[in-house]
Amino acid sequence: MTAAIRLKGVSRHFGSVRAVDDVDLEIREGEFFSLLGPSGSGKTTCLRLIAGFDQPTSGAVEIFGTDATATPPYRRPVNTVFQDYALFPHLNVRENVAYGPKVRGDPGPVRRRLADEALDLVALGGFGDRRPSELSGGQRQRVALARALVMEPRVLLLDEPLGALDPKLREQMQGELKALQRRLGIAFVFVTHDQAEALSMSDRMAVFNEGRVQQLGTPQEVYDRPQKPFVADFVGSSNVLPPEMVERLTGKAARASLRPESIRMGSGGVSGTVARRYFLGSATRIEVASEGVTLNVLLPKGSEVPATGADVSLVWEADALHVMPGDDHG
Amino acid sequence: MRSRAALGLKIAAIGGLLFLHLPILLIFIYAFTTEDKSYQWPPPGLTLKWFAVTWNRPDVWAALGLSLRVAAISTAIAMLLGTLCAAAVARSRFFGREAVSLLVILPIALPGIITGISLRSAFSVADIPFSFWTIVLGHATFCIVVVYNNAVARFRRTSGSLIEASMDLGATHFQTLRFVIMPNMATALLAGGMLAFALSFDEVIVTTFTAGQQQTLPIWMLEELVRPRQRPVTNVVAMVVVLVTFLPILGAYHLSRGTETVAGQGK
Amino acid sequence: MADVAARARNSARAAALSRVSDALWRRPSLLLLALVVPPLLWLGIVYLGSLFALLAHSFFSIDEFSGLVKYELTLKTYAELFRASNFDILVRTILMASAVTVAAAVVAFPIAYFAARHARGRWKAAFYLGVMLPLWSSYLVRVYSWKLILAKEGILNWVFETLRLTWLLEAYLSVPGIGGNSLSVSWTGTFLVFLYIWLPFMILPVQAALERVPPSMLEASGDLGARPGQTVRNVVLPLALPGIAAGSIFTFSLTMGDYIIPQIVGTSARMIGQAVYQFQGTAGNIPLAAAFAVVPVVVMGFYLTLARRTGAFDAL
After folding, report:
1. Using a CB-CB distance cutoff of 8 angstroms, which residues of chain B are in contact with residue A148?
2. Which of A310, B125, C1, C175 would suit a FRET pair with C40, their CA atoms being 20 to 30 Å apart?
3. How many structural domains are present in chain C?
4. What residue in B sits closest to C121 (Cα-Cα)?
5. How far is the alpha carbon of B214 from chain C, nearest alpha carbon, in Å?
6. C271, C167: one domain
7. Mean pLDDT in residue range B195-223
8. In order of start, what are the domains of chain B with their CATH numbers?
9. Among the residues of chain B, which ranges form H helices?
């Protein structure tokens, strides 16, 4: 299978700032792929390089096996949903969606039909005559989606499309986006800083930090076997145990990640003192100070929660402790 | 306590506005006075005859015509150059960007007389005789900033991703210009153009240095103020100038209402 | 046939445009250059060129016998500025500009404060237009209106007469320095007209600065125990300062460079603008006119540097 998008040694430097630094990436046809990372990690720049809004300082961008590095955005078979939606304020909803067909040269009736079909697809049939300013955030989001999809892109780029929505709507849109992607069968490249969103929606994901890909894999792989401390901490706030402690426990002198939910209260394990407790509703998180390290422990609802200052002993299954091969700068 | 302070403030504020506008109203009354030798108040009587007298004065018509032509052409030049400059400054960060915006603002930040005498010196050094075009040269120069300010404000408010969205959907630079940028900029440019027109139509200081023997309407008025010939005609012309300049300003206000203030003040 | 040819021409044109578009995308600096070069050429050649011509002229001198400009570099013309009669002009102008600026700030503040904090809806629009209209238009007409107001037979004298206060006006006019034969030929008259003409240039930036003060800040001040007067003094005024500084750039600069107002209303003593106008015109002494004109430029240079420190440029 050919890759939909392939980045080959792509860098984008702004002066001395390496926004994207020697990134190799392959996005497959028809998959839901997330670029996850904190702000300034290079994920959005990466998306802009794929869309063609920006050009790499070095390296190549291939789209369906063709070198697109020197192809302007208006000739790339990809379309974008912008973070601020970027709906044209001087056009109504239908004209917004019909914009692509219009500049392509489609005759009026065709444009109208395509636009209305695309609006139906996002459940906004009948909204064609409204102005973007008359719509809610969620509706604008759908118009932006329809406007991109009407071009029948083979890859859809989404730049933090759910960032501006409230949590409830956000959850609903996550489900709809995922369903839409399955139905259309095209690749979605999804930029987000929300690790839960990336984990729940993606087929595969790339975790970015400081312009580089820290780890690439399925959500399962990234969550269960983080390769680097940054990934362990950023995805799911894992405990990162220092090499000395890991050596004593396993004999290997390397850092290891340990998920808070894998830790239980028991006897004969690592002992420590409860420093703080946080009630989270469905669970309680406690911070346990042990040998100079603070371990986060997630206790499911119903389990016994020790008091602050209590001495506790922590245990976990042997395979819960994942020794990490890399450090953050490798 | 608070309402009393607000009342005092209100009186002061309304007093200030009256201070700004009563003198202009006074001109309107004087345009109807029967007294033609002095500025006698209250006017001994009211008449419409000075409108007829003014109507039949070829020198007034000539000056009005010149002013309108100068304002139209200066505005056109200023709209082109001001928009280009605004696009460059608002859309990209480049070396010398600050210097460019300073250069645009300079012609109104410095007193008009500096612009005037500078142009005069340049014409004298370069041996350029005074003409219609020397007037336009000066007017266009200080009108650029007016268009620039309006355009730059609109560019800044227009999300940069609109242009990217357009190109993402298949539009080239030129299609983007035609289908996205121009429709979004139109009212701001029109407003800027109207202000530039009013500014040029009204300008007198720079013009005295660049006009030679030709008389724009303000220059004609200045002559009449310094060496009065027929005072009532001057009053009528003054009233006409007020009306002609108020209209484009009201238009500009209407166009940019609710979007931004008509930014950038200056002569 | 013709139709086919036209369509072919059209598509050839479209292809050419799209090639240009590609080039602009590949090299964004080309696009920037295309945007910035035309205005820079105009301003650079017409305006900076002229300013340079002015500066150059100020270093030339006038030949006393022929009355022609001698194109040799000299500081002689600048030395002439310091002759008593000329130096008086400089001092007089700067004093006037300072007085007008201070007065404009005092008069503008309540108007701007009211417009920014209390006026709503239609009132706000009325205030805005009420300041905009005189700012943009009818400079000469507005000067002229004061000639009518201040004339001996004009409305102001009539008001004083009607109120039986003519003695007060006469007492005021007899004060040396600010008085004169009548208001229209006194420094007070000149001052009033300057204040009137440039006032809108002070109101707008102050109003803009005040509008940027969030109301919650005033509530915070009140919450912390400040009386309204204290809030204005300790919170509002400091925050309005950049606006006042921005406005003062206009009032100061415009007063310094104006030659029409003192020519129409005022005494026979000249200001810088009049000196520039007369030296270049009737006297034909462009070098001295240029040297005079350089003074406001230098003064404004200092002024702008000072104003920059107060953040005035953000309030423009």
Report:
1. 168-169
2. B125
3. 2
4. B258
5. 15
6. yes
7. 90
8. 57-256 (1.10.3720.10)
9. 2-30, 49-55, 58-91, 97-109, 112-126, 132-157, 161-168, 173-176, 182-202, 205-210, 217-226, 231-256
Which residues of chain A have a CB within 8 Å of the CB of C21?
Answer: 72, 74
The first and second tokens of residue B220, run together, are 């004609």
Please state, in angstroms and rounded to a whole number, the distance separating the CA atoms of residues B138 and A223: 69
For residues A135 and A268, state if they share a domain.
Answer: no
* pLDDT value of position B9: 82
For the domain that residue C189 is a member of, what is the CATH number? 1.10.3720.10
Domain encompassing residue C34: 2-58
Interchain CB distance below 8 Å, A83 and B167: no
Q: Are residues C255 and C121 in the same domain?
A: yes
Q: Where are the alpha helices (DSSP H) in A61-136?
A: 93-97, 99-104, 108-121
Structural domain including A141 reads: 3-232
Please state the domain count of chain A. 2
Q: Give the pLDDT score at C85.
A: 86
Mean pLDDT over residues A134-150, rounded?
A: 94
Q: What is the pTM of this model?
A: 0.83
Strands A58-63, A66-67: pairing is antiparallel
pLDDT tens-digit readout, C223-254: 888 887 788 888 888 888 888 988 888 899 88
Instruction: State the CATH number of the domain containing residue A172.
Output: 3.40.50.300
Residues B78 and B65: beta-carbon distance below 8 Å: no
| Residue A330 placed within a domain | no
Task: Please tell me which of the candidates B168, B172, B183 has its beta carbon nearest to residue A51.
Answer: B168
Determine, yes or no, domain membership for C78.
no
Whether C104 has a pLDDT exceeding 90, the answer reads: yes
Residues of A in Cβ contact (< 8 Å) with B166: 88, 99, 103
